[in-house]
Design goal:
One of its GO terms (molecular function) is monooxygenase activity. This is FAD-dependent monooxygenase. InterPro entries: FAD-bd, FAD-dep_Monooxygenase_BioMet, FAD/NAD-bd_sf. There is one protein chain. By secondary structure, the chain is of the alpha/beta class. The strands form four sheets. It has a seven-stranded mixed β-sheet with strand order 6-5-14-15-16-13-17, with no helix packed on it. A five-stranded parallel β-sheet has the order 8-2-1-12-18. The protein has a three-stranded antiparallel β-sheet with strand order 3-7-4. Strand 1, helix 2 and strand 2 form a beta-alpha-beta unit. Helix 2 packs parallel to helix 10. It is globular and about 60 Å long.
């Protein structure tokens, strides 16, 4: 679209998470009139760590916000996968993207604060829970629970796994339980039993449990995450300290020690859900992105990265296409094959032998072995 046409676009983004905030930055750089509507009265994020891949960091560099993200993160050179007792399975560098070679490990709260911090004041409107969206073809009308009504030329549904935009316009299928729980906590590096030795991600796996150690050494902390099989699909289940310890029985004694030291009240406990692939992400003036479009299990560590990639691809499509309608079709054609595959791979109940098959884009198995 021509620059003057994009500048006349009124864009409403529903949701101020990673995807919504990134989309707001990318689309506002094109000159569009962007507003973000977030249902929460104030922003907050679960205390855990994530990794921002080289392709994601390349987008941040393109948008001029690389330094804002890098200064609250730690740069990782490689990741390592080990057995429960610490025997190496795989060690590899991150998939490079242009000049970017490192994955940046960051606390979720720091990440969302950094993203929101690079948006103009007033762009994000808190306390706006979407009640209805009416698609009128070339524009849409949003009605919020606080009584406010907004009309926009383009609506971006970035409202997460329980997306109201998706449910009302695209699919009434609900989230799908994976049969797993995730237990996440951030601890002091001083309490990591000597396991926060560098800035590289390590995953220990055995008997249906995966333990992720993600150093946040710029904070002198480490994100300690356990994914374990559990049939309880309650969104926010309750478990005892004894049940938590049972998930890491037989693991490296240092991991058991970390788990034993935890205050269970500080652990974020969640059942793990994703969604089935959605057939279509867009109409002529409404589009889904991020978890609203393709929520995936966290085994690939690609949820936040995929949302950022979506934001970049959406901005690219608007700049390249002749109309909003064409841009949304181009966006889906670019991103959906990628995320469909990531959703599929992330659902695999993989074993040690399958590791090389479920980390796409890495080196061949012969090169990946330690």
């Amino acid at each position: 679209m021509k620059a003057e046409d994009i500048k006349n676009l009124k864009i409403a983004i529903v949701g101020a998470g990673y995807g919504g905030a990134a989309a707001a930055k990318a689309l506002s750089l094109l000159g569009a009139d962007v507003k973000v509507y977030e249902q929460a009265p104030q922003m907050g994020e679960v205390g855990a760590g994530i990794g921002l891949r080289p392709a994601t960091m390349a987008r941040f560099r393109q948008w001029g916000i690389f330094d804002a993200i890098a200064k609250v993160s730690s740069a990782s050179d490689y990741f390592e996968i080990l057995t429960a007792t610490g025997e190496p399975i795989m060690k590899d560098t991150w998939p490079e993207f242009g000049d970017e070679k490192q994955t940046y490990l960051i606390h979720r709260r720091d990440f969302i604060e950094a993203l929101l911090g690079v948006l103009p004041e007033g762009m994000v409107q808190l306390g706006h829970r979407l009640e209805t969206i009416e698609d009128k073809g070339d524009r849409s009308v949003l009605t919020f629970a606080n009584g406010e009504t907004v009309e926009a030329d383009l609506v971006v549904g970035a409202d997460g796994i329980k997306s109201a935009v998706r449910e009302q316009l695209f699919s009434d299928k609900g989230p799908v339980f994976s049969g797993e729980h995730a237990y996440r906590v951030v601890i002091s590096a001083d309490n990591a039993h000597g396991m926060a030795v560098d800035d590289n991600l390590r995953m220990y796996m055995g008997r249906g449990t995966k333990v992720y150690l993600l150093p946040l050494r710029h904070r002198n902390q480490m994100s300690f995450d356990i994914t374990a099989l559990n049939p309880d699909g309650t969104w926010a289940p309750t478990i005892t300290k004894e049940e938590l310890l049972k998930t890491v029985e037989g693991f490296d004694e240092r991991i058991v020690g970390i788990a034993r030291d935890l205050d269970i009240d500080t652990v974020n406990i969640r059942a793990v859900y994703d969604i089935d692939p959605v057939d279509s992400w867009h109409t002529d003036s409404v589009v889904l992105m991020g978890d609203a479009a393709h929520s995936m299990l966290h085994h690939q560590g690609q949820g936040a990265n995929s949302a950022i990639e979506d934001a970049g691809a959406l901005a690219d499509a608007l700049a390249q296409a002749d109309s909003v309608k064409e841009a949304l079709a181009l966006f889906q054609a670019t991103r959906k094959p990628v995320t469909d595959e990531l959703q599929r791979i992330s659902r695999q109940g993989w074993s040690e032998e399958e590791v090389n098959d479920v980390f796409p884009g890495q080196k061949p198995a012969a090169q990946a072995q330690v």
